[in-house]
Structures are given as C-alpha cells and as structure tokens.
Design a protein that fits this description.
The complex is a heterodimer of chains A (370) and B (917).
Chain A lengths: L2 H16 L2 H11 L1 H9 L9 E5 L4 H8 L10 E2 L2 H9 L5 E5 L3 H6 L5 E7 L3 H24 L10 E7 L6 H32 L1 H6 L5 H31 L8 H25 L3 H17 L12 H7 L3 H13 L5 H30 L1
Parallel strand pairs in A: 1-2, 1-3
Antiparallel strand pairs in A: 3-4
Helix pairs in contact in A: 1-10, 2-3, 3-8, 8-10, 8-11, 8-12, 8-14, 10-11, 11-14, 11-15, 14-15
Chain B lengths: L15 E10 L2 E11 L4 E5 L6 H9 L6 E6 L2 E2 L3 H7 L3 E4 L13 H11 L4 H15 L14 H13 L5 E5 L7 H17 L4 E6 L2 H4 L4 E6 L2 E6 L1 H8 L4 H8 L2 H6 L15 E12 L2 E12 L3 E6 L5 H9 L6 E6 L2 E2 L5 H4 L2 E4 L11 H11 L7 H11 L15 H13 L5 E5 L7 H18 L2 E5 L3 H4 L4 E6 L2 E6 L1 H8 L4 H13 L27 H17 L1 H21 L7 E7 L4 H12 L3 E3 L6 H9 L5 E5 L3 H6 L5 E7 L3 H27 L1 H4 L4 E7 L6 H23 L1 H8 L3 H5 L4 H29 L9 H25 L3 H18 L12 H9 L1 H14 L4 H25 L6
Parallel strand pairs in B: 3-8, 3-9, 6-7, 7-8, 13-18, 13-19, 16-17, 17-18, 21-22, 21-23
Antiparallel strand pairs in B: 1-2, 1-4, 4-5, 9-10, 11-12, 11-14, 14-15, 19-20, 23-24
Classes of the chains: A alpha/beta (370), B alpha/beta (917).
C-alpha cells in the first residue's frame, strides 16, 4: 500500500464532496439544526403532562389538590365532568384523569378511607410511568398536609435523599443531544462511503482506477480516511459548538478522548458502508439496506432505551455492532467524565470490530471490482 | 438516402423556424443568436464538431429544454407556449444522444415500446398490432422479451427508434443515433429510416450526426460551429460552394480561417519494421461469464510500435478482450504476455506500462481537467517535481489549455475524449489500449486525434491497440482484426482484407464478413410491410389521463417486480424491523445494578438493603468501601444506584429521630434515572410502612385514603402493547419513503427523465404513476405488520379495522409522497438517500409521539409534529389497537392525514420541471 496513493485518492474524494452543495448542506444540517431542534424538543423528564380533574366533591381539600398541579410538570388541570372523561382520554387529550368522589373531605375526616381514582393512559409509556409517581406523591402530600391540621398520628420517619449524578436535573436534552450526534455520525459514515462507491460503479470510474497501479486496499483506505475525516470534523464541531455551546450541556470528560473514540467508530462504520455497497446491487437496494441495518443498530445501541432492559439475546448480539460500544463510550466520557482507564474496553472493542469489518469489506470489495 | 421525397421542400412552410435563438448554460454559450428555417418533409442534418450546439438545438426543438432568448416555432406553433407544446408533443418524437438513454434497462423490448404506446394513448389492440409491426420491421421481433439493458448498441438504437415511431410522429428528431454503432447495424438503421419515410412521406426528420458519409445522403444540411450556423443547403450545394470532393473536406473548408489553419490531412508514415519483439502476445484467450462465452479462443501478436485496429459489432467481445489485456479481467483460459512477461491481474508494475481509455467516459466529473491529469500523474508515481511540467505538456499536446480549469461534465464529447487520452498518456506508457476512443467525435477532432496517435506510434514507438467503428480510421491502422460473437473472423492489413473479400471498400468487406458470420440479412426484414399511417392521438389533449398515469405506474411496478431483492427487502424487512424495535424499545427497566455503603451495619440497615436487593428491579453488587470507590464505580457505569445508610440508622429510626438515607442515581440516561428514582422511593416508603406496622400495629398504618390506579388501554403496563401500534407508523414511514425516494432522481441521473419532457405525460400523472406501485407495496406491508402484531406479538385490535386501514392508506400516500418530494428536489441519488433517511428517521422516532407524547414536545419539535404525518397515525394506531376507537373519535386525525398526503403530492409536482432548465 502506497501512502501517497491513499492520500491523493482521498483528496479526490474530498473534492468530489465539495462539488455537491446539497449534500454539504445536509451534512451541516444533520450536525447542527437537527441536533439542536431535537434536543430542545425533548421534554424535561415530566413536562406538561396533560391532566384532567373530575371534582365531584367541590370541597376545600379537592380545590387544594387541583391547585397542586401546575406547569412545568403538568398542564394546568382541565376541570371536567365524569361524562366527558372517557371521550377525552380516548382522544388522547389527557394522559391522566383524577376523580375526586363526592363527600371525599367529609369521609376522610371521618376516617372512612375514601377512594380517589386515577385513570392513566398507559399507551403513553414514559409519561405514564413517571407521571403516576408524581400524581401519587402530590395527592398524598396535600391530603397529609390537610390532615395534619386535624389529627395527630404516630409516624415512622426516615428521609430518602435522592441525588442524580452527572445530570442533576435529569435533563433529557443532554442525553438527546448526544444520541443525535451518534445517529448523525453513523448515518453519514455509511452513506458517504457506501452510496459514493455505488455511484462510482454506476459511472464506471472505479473500474478505471483499477487499470492504474492502484490496489483495492488503497482505494478503500482512501475512501475511509477522507469521508471519516469529514464526519469527524463535523462531529467535533457539533459537540463543541452545538452541544457544549448552544445547548449548554456541561461536558466533564476529555474531548480529545471522545474524538479518538469517534475516529475508531468511523473506522468501523465507513468499512460497514463499503461492505453494504458491495452487497447492494444498485442505489435503490442500498437505500433499503441502509434502513434495515441502521435502524436496529441505532435503536438497540442503548441510546434510546437502556441496554439492561433488552432481552439477553439481543444484548449479546448487539455487542457485535460498533454503535453499542460507541454509545457506552460516549455516555461514559461525555456525562460521567470517564477517562481512558474506564473506556479502554470500548476502544478496544471498536478497534476490533472495525478491523473485522474492514477485512470483511476488503474481501467483498475485491470481488466487487471483478 | 435512396429516395428523394424532397419535392415539397420548397413549397410547404418550414417545420422548424428559429429567430434569434440563444442558449447559455451558466457562463457557457451553447447557441448564439441563431436564425434558421429547417424545411419540412425532408431529411435534415445538423453537422459540426462536438459542442457547437447541435444537441442543445435539438432539445429546444423537441421541447425538452426551456427556451431562453429568441423565438422558436415548431410545427407552426410557438414553443414558448405551454398549450402548443402539449398539443404538438404527440406529433414530435425525440431520441436523445447516447445509446438507449431514454430506455429502461430492466424492461424488456416489448415493455419499453408498450410503455411509450400507453403514454400516447393507444388502446390495447392497436398497441399490440403496432408493436408487432415495428419489431418485425426493425428485426427486433426475436428479442421481444430481452431486457433493453442486455441489447447491443445497435439494437438499442433500433429499439429507441421503435419507441419514437410508435405514435407516428410528424417530426422525428434523432440526436446522433448511430454514434457507437457498428457499420452493419448502422446501415440497417438507415435502411429502416428510408422504409419509414417511404411510408410516411410527409414526415420531417432532423438528425445530428458526426458521420459525414451519412450526412452526404441527407436532403438538406446545416453546418454549425461555435453556436452559430456556418452554412445551409443540400449536400451538393455545400460541395459546390466549397469546391471539395467530400463533405469532410467541405466542412473543414467552411470553418473560420483560424481553425482551418491547424488542420491538415492525416498522414501516417509507414512503420519501420526493424523493431524486434512483440508488445502484446495473446494465446487462446477465452472468457466466460457463467454460461455465456464472451470471448472464445482469441490469439494475436502485436509487434512493438504497431497500430492495431479492432473492429466488430457491438457486444462482440472487443471490450472484454481489451480488459483482459489490461489486467482488469483474468481470462478463463489462455494467456497473454506483455513484452514477453506473463500478464497477471493485480500486477501493478505492468499497469504502469499500459495506458487505457475505456469506452464510457470514466474520468472524475468532480475534478477539473487539470486536477484529473495531476491525480493520474500522482497515481502513476511520477516524480512530484515533474508532474506540473508533464501536465502542461499534455494540456498543450492535446490542445486542452483553454479548458484546463473546467469540469468535464459541461465539455463536448470530443474534448472529453482528448482529455481521456491525455490522462491515459500522462505516464508515457509503452502500450495504449483505446476502446472506441473516437465514438461521437467530429471529423476535425478525429483527425487531430489520429495525428497524435500517429506521432506516438511512429515517433515514440508506442504500441497502440484501438477499437473503432469508423472505416476511415480502420484504414489507417497497420493491421486490423474483425471480431464477431467472441471470435476473430479475419486478421490482416486493411488492404489485404479488402482484396481478400473481393470488395470495393473496406466497409463492404466487413459487412460481407459480418453478414456471413451472423447469417443475417443486411436489409431489414419485411421492409415491404406497411406501417400504419394514421396515429391515434386520443387523450393527448386532456388535462389528466388515467392511461398515461397507469403507463408510468406499470413501468415502475415492472421495475420493482424485476428487482426481487428490493421487493423482498421492502416487505420482509419491515417485519424484521418490527421485531427488533418492538422488543428493543422496552420501557420496563429491570436488572438495575446497585451497591451499598452501609455505615450502620446493623440488622435493621441490612434489612433495609435487603428490601431493595430483593426486588426484581435491582441487582446488588459488592458493597462500596468509600466515596472514592462509589465515584469510580458510578463513572464506569458499573452501578446505576448507590445507597448510603448513615451510622446510627437503626437507633435513630427506632427513636423516631430524623434520619436520612442517601441515594445517588446515575443521571447519564435520564429516563432510566427517573425509573430508578421511582422504584427506590416506592421501596423506601413500603419499608417504613412495614416497620411502622411492626412497631405500632396495623391500625397505625391504615392510610387516610386510597389512591386507586386504573391503567387504561394497557392494564398490565406492557411495553409491547404500547410500542407495537407505534412501530407500524414508524415502519410505514421509513420504508415506503425510501422506496419512492430514488424513483425520480434515478431517472434524472440515468437520463430517462427526458421522457417526461417530451411525451404528453403531465407532471401530476408522472408523480401519481410513480407513487401508485409504492402505495400498493406499502399497503401490503401494512397488512403484514397488522397480522404480525396480532398473531406474533399478541396485541389485538380492539377498535375499527376499517378506520385503521383508511388511515393507513392516507398515511402511505403521505409517506411515499414525502419520498417523492425528496426525489423531485434532489439532483443526486446520494443526497436523496441521505435526506430521506435523515428527515424521516429522526422525526418519526422523536416527534411522532412514539416515546414522548406530542403534547409535551417543545419548540421546533412541536412544530414538526404538527405537520409530520406519523404523529397523527401514531394516535390513530394506538386508538384503534388499544382504545377501541373508530372514525367518530379519530376523525380529526384522519382528516389531517387526508390533507398532508395530497399536499406532499402537490409539492413534489411543483418541484418537478416539465422542461430541462
């Protein structure tokens, strides 16, 4: 392998990219506006959960309970009637509907243990899960406050002091921003190398290269370094300008270490892109293949839902995908400030998977050129 | 031409009238103020070098390109007026430059012609009759079911002619129809045109050509140069005017002085035969691709410095032989030697001695001429300090200085061929292998090119191995070989071959050899057969024609059906993804790791910890030893929860003193942290209650009230029940959009988009026709997904299936429409793929309500959710699956989809152009 060839062919790739302004705009968009918008759109844990209250009691206490729900966690409650409730929940207008029965306050004071009913739209998974806990503790707090002025009871007290580390407010946008960066890195890595290779074949320029004293390895390495460099630069800028700057996400870890990890991820992903291009016969097939490969890799990488909650089999299979390791690495470095001593297994795994994919893609690429 | 039907030429009004027509691409002027009348009812030829504006002129006349300056009247109407264009386009047939450029490679011969027949509104019986006749007349009938992509160049052109003639045009426009076609096919092609003209004497034909011997047979000629008209008139008149014997000479004489000065007839001095040794020796080369033998037992020896010509019909194995000699292909049998050394594919040192120029232009469009040359110089490892000088030398030698900094895309073919030769020569190779280097190049440029070859061969001793379709070029070779169907028929000097065949010219000798070998009749079969004379033009004027729409739908569907891998991926892929996403996106957080820093270490504290460890949510890890240890282990992600029990916990709790347990949660993943915090709080409260019960008895812990939870629609809080209905919209967005995303942009890249420009099809018919097959595939997808949801995932439909299906139909209209918007807007397939993936995946995962409800989104995301169709379909799918709803309660959402779908179609129609800009 001659490094000069690799360098010159890579420069050619970069020049080609510069000639496609729409593609350049899309790259910039995917690393800036796309990340920014989706991070800003992410609700902060429980945000504006829609709640309705059916107040059949109309007492001082029921008014206190209704008054305890307010933004940002909840929307100001809609006061509705029992008759309206079903229709409104069916239409998805509210996630929660709290029914305070008639004579609730009187029964409570008389010690008759009245029942408050909370209807939860359980199809809205995240909000239903976290919101229920909030509603429960708000109602309990209000009732206990009310009662404490009326009677005394022995209590077992022990506080639980909860602190969230690395992201004290559990801000979703921090997490969302990083997982979007990972999405863009992966998608671009595959598209820029893979689709570009198919285009070269459709135009016949790959074949032309082969009559020259250039080896398949040189062509492939040139594609990997040049497109990898573009994505690496874009992702570094995204982390620095968009994530750390505009979104004001504090990053305790070492950026150079993260960039190094990204480089390894790109090594694996660009090789994957070339591999997919050799499998797909044409551009339309490549488009579908991209969806079929990218979506599972991203959904199951642990950036959308925790890895722990996936079935064991999937967890094991996904260890073969570079994204899984990259997601772990990114979270460790960018949120927990972890250093090399912590993330070296992921770096090693990425390097290993990358080399495996590279070797595999090279074999396919040689056959593809025949 | 043998007929002379030109008697009406002077009397009827001109078929095409140009008045001050100019056309520019950016800063490049293609046509400069052209005023010209092309007579009707004759065979009119446009001649001139490449890049003088012949193709631009023809595309304007065909209505394929938008007018800029001047007036253009075609068939007695103004081409600027849309109404005239749509009225006259059924009367015009246009065959663009390039072999089979407006054909569809995966469709069969019959299907291609049939597609055009449908576009022009013929009914079934008439279509079949006409196609039969046309195929028989062109000799394509035996290949009726062969895909167009697998035809030879000559057959492709005949097929193109069939497609052009299906609707009996009054004006036939052919842009270099015989470029790159072998002599036999070329002769057959013109004979066919003669037959057609004999049947339809009123038809006007305009042809652009680079072959002067063909132009000599036309009725009327227009010589063009540099965007201007040099001269018009009959071939005879042009010859008389210039006093030249042939048109080649006449054309050169017509050129401005400055250009003519550089030209002189090519003379190749005889080769001095003293050089010993062979440059190329090939013995029994055979190449098989599967069952097909492309090259069979080919042997030849080419001495150093010889110009060796390779002739033969299209697809006869010339290119394959050349590829074996360059090391691009390993022969199945036989061997080849270069300068006495065996040739092996992958051997880099021999590649440095070869310069190869492939048939298709294969240099980088994204690099300038100079950059291309520099890149090649570097790749051939020329010493860096020599490269600039060498590049300048090449630019000068091949007369490329003026275009050094241009991109090849906009350059005329002749210049691009020179540029290819310059790059093939940059490293001063000993052997040049040139595959049809002069196809489509004008006579002046060709002579120039041959002068260079002559200098290289005789001056520098370079061995040249060249394939060509031009007979006057073949005559210049030292020796030639004629190939047919993978075999060499004859190999000798040009003169030897002519005499051997007893023919007058080399061309006739060749046609004789080819005819004998192929057993084909050189004249078109059934030439006497009458072609129908009157065209059915029903439907052409209508604003919207279902027939034309279905014509495109059929074409698209056939293409999809041929590509089995793609069709299978589209349908089965979605089921696969449903599994992955359905099981993968799981909100039930379990098996969370935690560790304890127990500073109390009493029975009570251990009991407290046991409560957590005992729950199914948590897995206990070895105890923490210190804060530092906790910090380290949280940082690595080993534990997601750390509990610190303070000293004196048991005692304080017993005495009712304030005591606090501390819990640290890993907040890196907020959703998981929320769940952990909920679990810990619950366990903590339960522990206290149990403790109170132990100490004070049941009465004390009886709560003041009960909070009764009703988890509606999904009583078990199963993640799957909530996710599966939301996954259907996700998949019906991604896959149909990706299917449709390439449909238009691919035609743009391949060139067949020209059919939209020049046929009566409207933009809306085009878009809807393309969309229809993908909507059907998407609905199939939908059914498969619903069945999988019910049977495999056990998520039943509780509401109205009809409502869901209606919504799915509207939704797939929107998702395929979204793909078409991308496809109409983008210019390259890569950009279309990337944009579609980016713009469907992120919104449908994040803004559709799949995970976070739409009502809680903020900012730009909330706005996107309002217009993004998936958010409505998620509501509908969940409503029908889980909430037992029907159209009465989902009406507004269905209505929203009913608006978004057509809006997408409208947008993609508006983004599409009916004429090239």
């Amino acid at each position: 392998m001659r490094l000069a060839n690799v360098w010159n062919l890579g420069i050619k790739e970069l020049r080609g990219l510069l000639r496609d302004p729409i593609l350049l705009i899309l790259i910039v968009y995917s690393f800036s506006l796309s990340i920014y918008t989706s991070a800003k759109a992410m609700p902060e844990t429980l945000n504006k959960a829609a709640i309705a209250i059916v107040d059949e009691d109309g007492s001082q206490l029921s008014a206190r309970i209704a008054g305890a729900f307010y933004p940002p966690y909840f929307t100001a409650p809609n006061m509705i009637s029992t008759a309206e409730m079903d229709a409104r929940m069916d239409a998805g207008l509210e996630t929660f509907a709290l029914t305070i029965p008639a004579d609730f306050q009187r029964d409570l004071l008389a010690g008759r243990q009245p029942v408050i009913q909370l209807n939860v739209d359980a199809t809205r998974m995240t909000q239903a899960f976290t919101g229920t806990g909030y509603v429960q503790s708000i109602v309990t707090y209000e009732v206990n406050e009310f009662l404490s002025r009326h009677r005394d009871a022995p209590q077992m007290t022990a506080d639980l002091v909860l602190r969230a580390r690395f992201n004290p407010n559990l801000s979703q946008s921090w997490f969302g921003a990083i997982s979007d960066v990972i999405t863009s890195i992966t998608m671009l890595g595959i598209v820029l190398t893979g689709a570009a290779l198919i285009r070269e074949r459709e135009y016949g320029t790959v074949e032309h290269l082969l009559v020259m004293p250039v080896t398949a390895t040189e062509i492939m390495v040139a594609k990997i370094w040049s497109m990898g460099a573009v994505v690496l630069l874009a992702s570094a800028l995204a982390i620095w300008v968009v994530v750390e700057g505009l979104l004001a996400v504090p990053i305790p870890g070492s950026l150079p270490l993260f960039i190094f990890g990204t480089a390894l991820q790109l090594y694996a992903i660009t090789a994957l892109g070339i591999f997919l291009a050799t499998v797909a016969g044409s551009m339309p097939q490549f488009g579908l293949l991209l969806v079929l490969v990218f979506l599972p890799m991203q959904v199951l990488s642990g950036t959308m839902t925790p890895r722990e909650s996936m079935p064991e089999v999937i967890q094991t299979i996904m260890l073969a995908a570079p994204n899984t390791h990259f997601a772990i690495l990114a979270q460790a470095i960018l949120f927990r400030g972890a250093g090399l001593s912590v993330v070296w297994p992921q770096l090693l795994a990425l390097a290993g998977i990358g080399t495996g994919l590279f070797a595999f893609a090279l074999v396919r690429f040689r056959a593809f050129l025949r | 031409m043998t007929q002379t039907p030109a008697e009406g030429a002077g009397t009827s009004p001109p078929v095409v009238q140009l008045q001050g027509v100019s056309l520019a691409y950016g800063r490049t002027e293609a046509l400069r103020d052209i005023t010209l009348d092309i007579p009707a009812g004759v065979m009119a030829g446009l001649i001139g070098p490449d890049g003088v504006g012949k193709s631009s002129l023809l595309s304007l006349v065909a209505g394929a390109r938008r007018m800029q300056d001047g007036q253009l009247r075609v068939l007695e109407g103004d081409m600027r007026k849309r109404s005239h264009r749509s009225r006259s386009c059924p009367r015009i047939a246009y065959m663009p430059q390039g072999l089979g450029r407006n054909l569809y490679a995966t469709l069969s011969v019959f299907e291609n012609v049939d597609f055009f027949g449908r576009l022009f509104g013929h009914d079934r019986a008439e279509r079949e009759a006409r196609i039969d006749e046309l195929l028989r007349a062109t000799g394509l009938a035996p290949f009726r079911d062969r895909p167009a992509g697998k035809l030879s160049g000559g057959m492709k052109q005949k097929l193109g002619l069939c497609c052009a003639l299906i609707h009996d045009p009054d004006l036939l426009i052919l842009d270099e129809p015989t470029t790159g076609v072998d002599p036999l096919s070329r002769r057959q092609f013109w004979d066919l045109i003669d037959v057609i003209r004999a049947r339809r004497p009123g038809m006007s034909v305009i042809v652009a050509t680079a072959y002067m011997e063909e132009a000599a047979r036309f009725d009327w000629l227009c010589a063009m140069h540099d965007g201007r008209v040099l001269a018009t008139g009959t071939p005879q008149a042009l010859l008389e005017r210039t006093g030249e014997a042939d048109l080649d000479g006449a054309f050169i004489a017509l050129l401005p002085e400055a250009l003519r000065g550089a030209h002189h007839a090519v003379t190749i001095p005889p080769r001095e035969g003293d050089e010993a040794g062979y440059a190329i020796e090939a013995e029994h080369l055979t190449m098989r691709f599967g069952d097909f033998t492309a090259v069979e037992d080919v042997s030849f020896r080419i001495p150093k410095g010889e110009i060796f010509g390779f002739l033969g019909s299209n697809g006869c194995g010339k290119t394959t032989t050349m590829k074996m000699l360059t090391g691009l292909l390993d022969p199945s049998e036989g061997r080849a030697e270069l300068f006495g050394e065996p040739l092996e594919a992958g051997d880099l040192t021999t590649r440095r001695r070869i310069g190869y120029m492939s048939q298709a232009f294969s240099l980088y469009r994204e690099l300038t001429v100079r950059q291309n040359l520099e890149l090649h110089g570097k790749l051939y490892a020329l010493p860096p300090e020599e490269i600039p000088a060498r590049v300048e030398e090449m630019l000068q030698r091949f007369d490329l200085q003026s275009v050094g900094d241009s991109y090849p895309h906009g350059l005329p073919l002749g210049i691009r061929q020179r540029m290819s030769l310059a790059t093939a020569m940059i490293h001063a190779p000993d052997i040049l292998i040139l595959d049809e280097p002069t196809s489509g190049v004008d006579p002046v440029a060709r002579d120039h090119f041959w002068q260079i070859l002559s200098d290289l061969s005789r001056g520098d001793g370079v061995t040249i191995f060249i394939s060509t379709h031009f007979m006057n070029e073949a005559e210049r070779c030292d020796r030639i070989s004629l190939m047919h169907a993978g075999r060499v028929l004859v190999s000798d000097t040009p003169e030897g071959i002519r005499q051997g065949a007893g023919a007058e010219t080399l061309e006739e000798a060749f046609i004789g050899h080819l005819t004998t070998a192929s057993g084909a009749d050189p004249a078109p079969q059934d030439a006497s057969e009458a072609l129908p004379l009157h065209a059915a033009r029903g439907g052409a004027q209508r604003h919207f024609s279902l027939r034309r729409m279905f014509s495109y739908a059929r074409r698209e569907a056939l293409e999809l059906a041929r590509d089995r891998i793609r069709a299978a991926m589209a349908v089965l892929g979605s089921v696969l993804l449903m599994f992955v996403v359905g099981y993968g996106i799981n909100m039930d957080v379990e098996d969370l790791t935690f560790a304890v820093l127990d500073r109390d270490n009493t029975v009570t504290s251990r009991d407290y910890v046991q409560q957590i460890a005992g729950s199914r949510y948590f897995l206990q890890q070895p105890d923490l030893t210190s804060y530092a240890d906790m910090d380290q282990r949280m940082r690595t992600g080993e534990i997601s929860l750390a509990i610190e029990v303070p000293p004196g916990f048991a005692a304080d709790l017993e005495r009712g003193r304030d005591v606090a347990v501390a819990a640290w949660i890993d907040g890196a993943m907020p959703m998981r942290a929320e769940t952990v915090s909920g679990y810990v709080q619950g366990i903590h409260a339960w522990y206290l209650q149990e403790k109170a019960r132990e100490v004070y008895g049941d009465a004390a812990v009886a709560s003041a009230f009960d909070l009764e939870m009703r988890y509606r629609y999904n009583p078990d809080m199963r993640s799957l029940s909530a996710m599966v209905p939301a996954v259907i919209p996700l998949l019906l967005m991604l896959i149909p959009a990706m299917l449709a995303a390439l449909s238009v942009v691919r035609e743009k890249e391949m060139g067949s988009i020209v059919n939209l420009y020049v046929t009566p099809v409207t933009r809306l018919e085009f878009i809807l026709g393309k969309q229809l097959p993908y909507v059907i595939v998407a609905m199939l997808n939908y059914l498969v997904l619903v069945v999988a949801a019910i049977t495999v995932f056990g998520v039943p439909i509780s509401g109205s299936f009809a409502t869901l299906t209606l919504a799915a139909l509207l939704f797939t209209l929107a998702s395929t429409g979204f793909g078409l918007v991308m496809s109409s807007f983008m210019r390259s397939q890569i950009a279309a793929i990337f944009a579609t993936a980016l713009l469907t995946m992120i919104p449908s995962v994040q803004y559709s309500g799949m995970i976070d409800p739409v009502s809680s989104l903020e900012g730009g995301g909330a706005v996107i959710a309002q217009v993004f169709p998936a958010s409505y379909f998620v509501t509908i799918a969940r409503g029908v699956f889980a909430k037992a709803l029907d159209l009465t309660s989902l009406g507004p959402d269905v209505l929203a989809l009913a608006v978004i779908g057509p809006a997408m179609i409208l947008l993609s129609t508006l983004l599409l152009r009916k004429q090239e800009k």
